[in-house]
Write a structure and sequence with these properties.
- The chain has 248 residues and is α/β, with parallel strands linked by helices.
- It has one domain (9-241): 3-Layer(aba) Sandwich (Rossmann fold), CATH 3.40.50.
- Helix content is 43%, strand content 17%.
- The chain has helices at 18-29, 41-51, 65-78, 102-123, 149-169, 187-190, 197-206, 216-227, and strands spanning 9-12, 33-38, 55-59, 82-87, 127-136, 175-181, 238-241.
- The chain has a seven-stranded parallel beta sheet, with helices on both faces.
- Helix 1 (18-29) packs across helix 8 and helix 4 (102-123) packs parallel to helix 5 (149-169).
- The longest helix has 22 residues, at 102-123.
- The radius of gyration is 17 Å and the shape is globular.
- It starts with 8 loop residues before the first strand and ends in a 7-residue tail after the last strand.
- Bound molecules: NADP nicotinamide-adenine-dinucleotide phosphate.
- NADP nicotinamide-adenine-dinucleotide phosphate (NAP) binds next to helix 1, strand 2, helix 4 and helix 6.
């Protein structure tokens, strides 16, 4: 079968782990050159070693405007523009209303909201004709998971921004959609319970209609769909890949 992204260039933020890494893998398999980011140099080096000249790994904190400017200097240096963008870098931490601090709130919103906005904004001058953007939301944006109020609020902001940007970008023929993962087995999810991650994962999986967590590759398949022409009729949408978790 023909590769969906043959000869195309993609950007994936937070591409060194979990969902982002699965997207990098899938995009490379489909023929793209992928520019990817993360904050940890050793993780970037590992992805660069795995994929060689199929990727460009750039150390950039999505919440830091100077880092984001550096990222787009690297995109400019490649000289091929961008056909697909996945603004995926994000963090989540448990913290009930009685526990969260001002710093916790700023950290979540700096990465998930400011980081997403700076990434999409920075990509605009480089978007090739017909380019498509995907941002990573979360079922927490519309759910009521205890301890996830601030995280869910930041992801609700991401979905809201995306709806407006879809209207703003439509005259350029650029589509932007939100992929909405349910609980997905990643180090990010495990990091919510560092003392006993397996117990947390088992507990969440037990509450899922499918009886298991999602795999990062299942989210990546939806992201590929959203950047491909197969989704040409979609913009400003939220595509839930949640294993039915929002049904119960
Ligand atoms: N796993 C789930 O159940 C789930 C469900 C719904 C939504 N999500 C969302 O999916 C996205 C990916 O999560 P994941 O579970 O795959 O997490 P993960 O395994 O922890 O991966 C997160 C990736 O983002 C990078 N990152 C984090 N903060 C960053 C920042 N400020 N700037 C640049 N890169 C940053 C990380 O690298 P560094 O640490 O080196 O920066 C890593 O590459 C997030 O937006 C998350 O909120 C996850």
């Amino acid at each position: 079968m023909a590769q969906v992204l043959a000869g195309k260039t993609a950007l994936v933020t937070g591409g060194t782990s979990g969902i982002g890494l699965a997207v990098v893998r899938r995009f490379v398999d489909e023929g793209a050159h992928v520019v990817l980011t993360g904050r940890r140099q050793e993780a970037l080096d590992a992805v660069a070693a795995e994929f060689g000249d199929r990727v460009t790994a750039v150390r950039a904190d999505a919440s830091n405007p100077t880092d984001v400017a550096g990222l787009f200097e690297a995109v400019a240096a490649r000289g091929a523009g961008l056909d697909a963008v996945h603004a995926n870098a994000g963090i989540g931490e448990f913290g009930s209303l009685t526990e969260v601090t001002a710093e916790d709130i700023d950290t979540a919103f700096a990465t998930n909201v400011r980081g997403t906005a700076l990434t999409v904004q920075g990509a605009l001058p480089f978007l090739n004709e017909g380019a498509a953007i995907v941002v990573t939301g979360s079922t927490s944006a519309s759910g009521t998971e205890r301890g996830f109020g601030i995280y869910g609020g930041s992801k609700a902001a991401v979905a809201a921004m995306t709806r407006t940007w879809a209207v703003e970008l439509a005259p350029r023929g650029i589509r932007i959609n939100t992929v909405v993962p349910g609980p997905t087995e990643t180090s990010g999810l495990k990091g919510l319970a560092p003392s006993d991650p397996d117990a947390l994962l088992q507990q969440i999986a037990g509450g899922m209609p499918l009886g298991r967590l999602l795999r990062p590759e299942e989210i990546a398949a939806a992201v590929l769909f959203l950047v491909s022409d197969e989704s040409s009729g979609m913009t400003g949408s939220e595509l839930f890949v949640d294993g039915g978790s929002t049904l119960v």
